[in-house]
Amino acid sequence: MKKLFAIVAAGLLMMLAACSSDEEPTTQPQQSSAEETIEEEPQPEETTEPIKPTPDPKWSVGEFLPVAPEGVSAHLARTEEGYRLAYGSYGAGGWVVAECSMDWECEISGKLDRVADLTVVELTSGDLRAYFVEINPNTKQKEIFTAEISEDWLTLSNRQSIGFDDGGAMAWGVPDAVVGPDGLVRVFWVVPGSGMANERVISATSTDASGVTFKLDEGDRLTGGYVDFEVVQASSDGWLGIASSSPEGLPSRPQGLFVAVSQNGLDWTIDEESISPSEMSYLDPTAVLNDDGQMELVISRGSNELGQRNYELVRSKMIFGN
User: Fold this and answer.
1) What pTM value is reported for the model?
2) 56-321 maps to which CATH number?
3) What are 189-196's contacts with CB under 8 Å, separation 24+?
4) What is the dihedral of CA 56, 7, 85, 171, to 10 degrees?
5) d(CA 228, CA 88)
6) Could you state, in order of their start, the residue ranges of all structural domains in the chain?
7) Per-residue pLDDT reduced to its tens digit, 58-82
8) Average pLDDT of 35-62?
């Protein structure tokens, strides 16, 4: 898996590197000697076929298949039997948890209340911890909370805020948590930018491996209108993430799916070319790497209309290569 990530990071960084200069090298003509003139025999002109550059390897996405008739802001994890999936369901009136087989036969196991945008990590201690958005009853603002969570994701205990709220902003939230190679938890979320379709992604890192107390990281992780950021892998070899684009670009610019890489989880490089089709919008991506080095992706899909939309939950595979 480490070898796979190294290839991924190298490929994307090569693709985003600056192009080489287009100027052709020139050589100075040799001065002939006044004392001696040597006539050279004409040499046959060499003809060579132009060398075609090898395209850089990139992520590509396969066919999209149905998971649920409606759903938003999903979170996916591996289990011994297959996958565990949590997502927001308007029909269920809360956050649904489903158990899915390797063949993606899913069965709903329960529902969580007073939770939005759930994300779950396994700490270095082996305990599970959840991060999610909840309205603080005292401030009436949305805040990022954390809690202990059961193995089946159906019970939360000891809820507490980690100290970051929406400040009254609309373009805010969708936190994603990941345990870094140092054992600390880093939470990423979206905040408003300057102007339309210019959201930013920022982060905070826990002060210890318990993942309860956080300090805001300096600067931005992503700028330019990327939202719904999720880290798929964080290791000492590098970090791999996916994001969607701002809904404020609709209907002229569909929400797409974008791949990002980083060496430290703070400085990110994103491929500005969407890998998803433009006929519809794709948002709220969540993914895990499977045993074959492919990315199992679950994502919400909707029309390219601006305003209230219906979202279906679909899945696909992302493969890295030429």
Assistant:
1) 0.83
2) 2.115.10.20
3) 189/144, 189/164, 189/229, 190/227, 190/228, 190/229, 193/223, 193/224, 193/225, 196/246, 196/248, 196/249
4) -60
5) 14
6) 56-321
7) 889 999 999 999 999 999 999 999 9
8) 61
